[in-house]
């Protein structure tokens, strides 16, 4: 892999973001709105429940973590969509850049954009609603890392879907986190789910993160085995997503789809 | 037959089929150093399909492509490091400025002393006043010049030009032709050029290949080929290839 090619993908995104308020604002505004909305919901629930249960870390913390995963995924897909929207595939894929270099460039871009979103979310949640996110200290890092890896896997999967099905397929990509969230147990323990849903949950890395975080918030130790399982599944998900992307790319090169991408299919 | 390593581009028995339809049918040719080869033919003859296969964005059904002796199917990245292209259907992203586009693609092609090279090209293609202008607001002729500047970034050994002067006024087109001739004369690179402008082809190309229905029908010097086939001009020969290819095949 050549560093300059990876840096080129990141630089292109930097140029686009730097000069475009419509790209800068969504990185901060939507996550801030989400935190404000859920912040007030958690406050209200705390008041009406009167049970002494801490809704802020349980619900608002969960929203924050799930939004982080979503932002990581969208960081990758948005960078890819820029090439789709500007019909740049031929220029990029007819160059010496390799698929691993291109995907790494998208991932690095996502690290930058999702980090900004995370900072905004933590700031709003801490200042406005008293969520002491970093009170958990280093314990939090592995959970965030598993979610980060999961977001990367979903992002690469999303780009492969759009590469295969054409520009209109981006509408399949946006709802992916919403479709997965009921199975990941973002807001409730997995024991709440029916058996068939729990079986799906078992293969989703984020479900181990949210179960683990609930355990930590309840004052228990970090469930190391669950965390390791989540990490292993997340790595496997990235490998599968990369394999799927490469397969779709090869199909696109075999059929001429890349050269005629705007047609959406070659049939 | 010359050795693979002697040629900038070597194409052997190249075929591309889509199901029953054959787009490129057993095409073989070479581009030598300091040579400009014109790939001519009517719409749908297989020119762009051939170029796409050379660029690695379309996999041949069979056959081999080597750029500077490097097999593109085995060492795609290395082969394409020595290649670049400009095509009317592949404009650079309109939401980046001219300079930003050249920088991004310069990094993708790992160009040494990139800032210096970008300045050189901005000057060479008369783009200095547009350096901070987004490509999307340039005229089609200006966009073509930016694409050509991008195509020259890595001083490619093989330059693929798919109708590079299609949207240019005659004066700018002449300058571009002159630039490309200089590029070929000054280094060791070769050019594969498609165009529907037969005057331009005669002026620029050392050799032409006429493609029809995916096959190479004729090959030769653009200035003598028409007479060899009893035609008054290259344009007349082109029209015959497009309308009555069988009469030429019989010859």
Report the biggest beta sheet of chain A as strand number plus sense, adding barrel if it closes. none
Percent in helix of chain B: 25-40%
One letter per element, helices H and strands E, the order of chain B comes to EEEHEEHEHHHEHEHEEHHH
Q: Which percent bin holds the helix content of chain A?
A: over 70%
If you average the pLDDT of chain B, what whole number results?
Answer: 90
Apparent shape of chain B:
globular
Q: How much beta of chain A, percentage-wise?
A: under 5%
Supply Rg of chain B. Answer: 18 Å
Tally of extended strands of chain B? Answer: 10
Cα separation of the termini of chain B: 24 Å
- Largest interface, per-chain counts? A-B, 32 and 34 residues
Explain this structure.
The complex is a heterodimer of chains A (267) and B (251). With 267 residues, chain A is mostly helical. Chain A has one domain (3-260). In chain A, 76% of the residues lie in helices and 0% in strands. In chain A, helix 3 runs antiparallel to helix 5 and helix 6 (140-165) runs antiparallel to helix 10 (205-217). Chain A starts with a helix and ends in a 12-residue tail after the last helix. Chain B has helices at 47-54, 76-81, 98-108, 114-124, 140-152, 170-186, 198-204, 225-228, 234-243, 245-250; strands at residues 9-18, 21-31, 36-40, 62-67, 70-71, 83-87, 158-162, 190-194, 207-212, 215-220. Chain B has a six-stranded mixed sheet, with helices on both faces. Chain B has a four-stranded antiparallel sheet with strand order 2-1-4-5. In chain B, strand 4 and strand 5 (70-71) form a beta hairpin. The two termini of chain B are 24 Å apart. Mean pLDDT of chain B is 90; it is low at 1-5. Chain A binds chain B through residues 2, 4-5, 7-8, 11-12, 15-16, 20, 82-83, 86-88, 90-98, 250, 253-256, 258-259, 266, and chain B through 18, 48-49, 52, 55-59, 76-78, 80-81, 85, 87, 89-97, 100, 103-105, 107-110, 150.
